[in-house]
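request received
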Amino acid sequence: MKKYLRLLYNGIIPANPVFVLLLGMCATLGTTSSALNGLMMGIATAAVLICSNAAISLLKNVIPDKVRIPAYIVIIATFVTVLQLAISAWMPALNASLGIFIPLIVVNCILLGRAEAFAGKNGVIASLIDGLGCGIGFIFALTLLGAVREFLGTGHIFGYEIYSEDYGMLIFVLAPGAFIALGYLIAIVSRLRGLSSNT
Amino acid sequence: MLYLSIIITAIFINNIVFSQFLGICPFLGVSKRISSALGMGAAVTFVMTLATVVAWLLQTYILDPCGLQFLQTIVFILVIAFLVQLLEIVMKKSVPALYQALGVFLPLITTNCAVLGVAILVIQKEYNLLQSLTYGVSTAIGFTLALWIFAGIREQLELTAVPRGMRGVPLALISAGILAMAFMGFSGITIG
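response:
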């Protein structure tokens, strides 16, 4: 039990996929114009991550070692397609706002990274927990970045007004603000961790 | 006029990196030296052009007539992975000099979301084959341009003294943000 808790915690803070491992940057920057979008994208990615981790872990003895990467990609792409169909059927508004980033979950490095580093070597339950931890870490990072951008850009958080939109810095909702806000967030996180990222 | 508009839009106005957020991983990963940035740019141009055309042909002549549009994501990613592998093998045999120059960057391209992104975008925009080809090539040029400028900036950044927490990626991201702001200046351009 303790082992699983450590696995869960590891993905959320010490090995946070966005702030520490710097994976999945495209989706992180592209979908966080508001806190809600960030949260939704995080949930979508986490769902695929948990499913693909579990499936890969179940199939790890069947998949030949030489073709494991293409096999992982097909498994991930299948879950992404399922998600894509589900979202476009039940949540068309969300589908419109996340747009191309839903199919692009396939090439999110977090998924293949976790498959290769963890799910291909460990049992199903551990892989599920690992996927859950990383997924929560990703949701946390995207929601935080989305909230910061929405707050600075429009004065709202999750659509609730904190200060008047007239004083908002629109640049934070637009493309350049994404880079700047994420840069400062990573700097703050690495300062808090007492480490300098030297990559 | 339409083609000129596609070219200018893809390179400057809707630059793939600065306004569409695709291909950020190689953008941050391989932008430390101008030489490697140009190598990556050339490899991406190669694969992106080929992948866009092949994906368009597959979508128009196989997926659409058979009603298999839902397989788009799976088919496209496999096509890209296959193309990258094929290119690697062909180049190793026939143009070893080019392979030496691009070799290290090729495997990285499979997980470059810009390539898959462009393949899906041309289908969404309902471009015809020639328009797709134009869009693919000019997006790749835009990517190379962004990578090239950014590598030049990063070479200078390494010489500056910055606080410990800001060193590396955070500073690079903030510089990219300022560069993106500069690229926003192009958004006033209208063609045709």
